[in-house]
Amino acid sequence: xxTTNIDPLLGTAAQALSAIEAVEWHTARxxxxxxxxxxxxxxxxxxxxTIELTYPEQSLSAYNCLLKNTGLPxxxxxxxxxxxxxxxxxxxxxxxxxxxxNARAASAARAVVESVTATDGPxxxxxxxxxxxxxxxxxxxxxxxxxxRADATAVFPIDAERGIRHAxxxxxxxxxxxxIGSAGKTVPPERDAIAIFxxxxxxxxxxxxxxxxxxxxxxxxxxxxxxxxxxxxxxxLEALLVACDACAAEVTxxxxxxxxxxxxxxxxSETDSLxxxxxxxxxxxxxxxxxxxxx
Length: 295
Fold this sequence. Notes:
7 helices, about 300 residues, about 25% strand, six-stranded antiparallel sheet, globular, alpha+beta, six-stranded mixed sheet
């Protein structure tokens, strides 16, 4: 395995971002970039490039990580593996020659660095530019069956092992979203049980992040890369299928059963890097998680 070492003395985000742009990602199988106390690491496995850093802030609640996931750029996500990490996966497999993989990877790496500075709570990101995205041709190229709603939303049936679920393509935001259930009636300990479970589960599933949307809808999401191809859409749908098989039924059970959620919390190790929020008033934050995100 070849290694690209970036100057470990880089002291500022600007220097690190310049170094990111200089990396030849199509040949660098392992890379380390150090910037203002954060170490960005990459590795390649099969057809995926993973870029991540161990998140230094330990004061975040698990549920707040799901709120923040909703707005992080380029599909960056929080996950527990076993420490809290910021991670993004870039598909490098069978893509058209016109795809600039180096630009995709550099953009994803920049997004990880920028996500470290995101404030606590939901990220108020700008709308992802879906201009120029032709969902019809993208879907046809992917080869996946779909249904079209009256509002032109494309809905993909996901035939999971434990029942069919549905993924919705948002052409404007270039995202695939699979709702699992509402956490609107849960209290802090229960919602953190759900969040910790999802943060752990999505650590082992490429490209999929756990999010909370309006009306406290908990679900799974994949953000498509810039100028997505049918292969990108197919990979995103396959990732959602894997994620659905891995955790959707369990999350539904945790949402429906407060005693089960409490029992799950009791099994967590004292060394877990995320702890549940202390139980307080049984109401939700005043803010609503945003559905806006940027690429």
